[in-house]
Structure to design on (304 residues):
C-alpha cells in the first residue's frame, strides 16, 4: 500500500512538472506607461495564466527619470521566452536592450503589443515596423499612412495629419475582418466590448500588416483597427489596441483574443487557446470577468 502511494505521488509530481514544461513561457515588460501599468499588468498575467497555456514572468523597467546606472542593470533575456508582451510606454530602452529585442524578433520571436505600447518609441524604426501603426509621440504623415477600413476595404491614407486620437471612453462593437485567421476563427462576427478607448488615426509603416478586427470610430466615421497581425523577420506580432484600463481588459472578448494572440505570436497557431468560451460576449451584451481582491480602477462617468 505504501509503495503504491509513493508511486502515485511520484507520478503526480512528474505530471505537474510535465504540464509546467509544456506551458509557453511569456515575458511581460512594464515599468513606465501613461496608463496604470501596476494595476493592468496583474490583469494581463491572469488573462494568460487562467487559460492554463502559459507561465508568465514580469520584467519591470527602471522608473521614469532613473539614473543611467539603473538602466545598466535592466537587460531582459528575451530569448528565454516564447513571446514578449509589452505593457510599456515610456522612455527609450537602452541601445543594447533594443538591439537584443530586434535580434530576438528577427530570429523568430513573438511579440504582443497591448494598447498604449503602440504609443512607444516613435523614433525607433524597427519597433514601428513591428507594430505596423502607432499613435501620439509626434507621429504624423512622415511616420507613414493612416490605416483604416472603409466599406470592407483597407485604406492607407497618406494625407497630412497627426497620428493617434480617441474620443470619450465607451462600449463599442468589435467587428471581425478576417474570420479565417487562427486568432479570430470561430468568434462571433460582431461582439460588444467593455468601456475602452477606441484608438483612431494610427500611423506608421503599415507593412506586412493584416487587420483581424476593427470598430467604427466615433471620431473618423471609418472602421479603425483593433487587432492586427504582422511579420517581422522570422517573428510574429499580435497588436491589439484594446485595453486602456483594467475594466477594459476584464472583458471576456479581450481575455480570449489576448490568449489566442499570444499563443499565435509564440507558435503560429492557437491549439491551446482556440476553444470558444461559453460566456463570450454577444453583439449586444458585454461579458465582464470578476477578479476577487483586484484593486479596480473606476470607469469615467458618461459626459452629459
Amino acid at each position: 500500500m505504501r509503495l503504491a502511494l509513493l508511486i502515485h505521488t511520484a507520478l503526480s509530481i512528474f505530471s505537474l512538472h510535465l504540464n509546467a514544461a509544456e506551458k509557453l513561457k511569456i515575458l511581460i515588460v512594464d515599468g513606465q506607461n501613461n496608463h496604470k501599468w501596476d494595476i493592468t499588468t496583474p490583469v494581463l498575467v491572469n488573462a494568460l495564466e487562467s487559460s492554463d497555456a502559459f507561465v508568465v514572468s514580469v520584467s519591470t523597467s527602471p522608473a521614469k527619470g532613473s539614473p543611467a546606472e539603473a538602466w545598466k542593470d535592466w537587460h531582459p533575456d528575451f530569448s528565454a521566452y516564447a513571446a514578449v508582451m509589452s505593457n510599456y510606454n515610456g522612455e527609450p530602452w537602452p541601445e543594447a536592450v533594443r538591439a537584443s529585442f530586434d535580434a530576438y524578433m528577427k530570429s523568430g520571436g513573438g511579440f504582443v503589443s497591448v494598447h498604449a505600447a503602440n504609443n512607444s518609441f516613435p523614433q525607433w524604426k524597427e519597433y514601428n515596423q513591428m507594430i505596423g501603426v502607432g499613435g501620439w509621440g509626434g507621429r504624423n504623415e512622415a511616420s507613414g499612412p493612416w490605416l483604416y477600413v472603409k466599406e470592407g476595404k483597407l485604406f492607407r491614407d497618406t494625407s497630412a495629419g497627426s497620428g493617434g486620437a480617441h474620443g470619450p471612453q465607451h462600449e463599442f462593437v468589435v467587428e471581425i475582418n478576417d474570420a479565417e485567421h487562427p486568432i479570430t476563427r470561430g468568434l462571433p462576427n460582431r461582439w460588444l466590448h467593455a468601456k475602452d478607448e477606441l484608438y483612431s488615426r494610427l500611423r506608421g509603416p503599415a507593412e506586412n500588416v493584416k487587420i483581424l478586427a476593427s470598430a467604427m470610430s466615433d471620431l473618423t466615421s471609418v472602421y479603425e483597427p483593433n487587432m492586427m497581425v504582422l511579420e517581422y523577420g522570422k517573428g510574429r506580432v499580435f497588436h491589439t489596441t484594446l485595453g486602456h484600463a483594467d475594466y477594459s481588459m476584464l472583458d471576456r472578448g479581450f481575455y480570449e483574443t489576448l490568449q489566442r494572440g499570444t499563443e499565435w505570436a509564440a507558435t503560429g497557431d492557437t491549439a491551446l487557446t482556440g476553444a470558444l468560451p461559453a460566456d463570450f460576449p454577444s453583439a449586444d451584451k458585454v461579458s465582464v470577468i470578476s477578479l476577487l481582491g483586484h484593486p479596480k480602477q473606476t470607469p469615467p462617468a458618461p459626459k452629459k
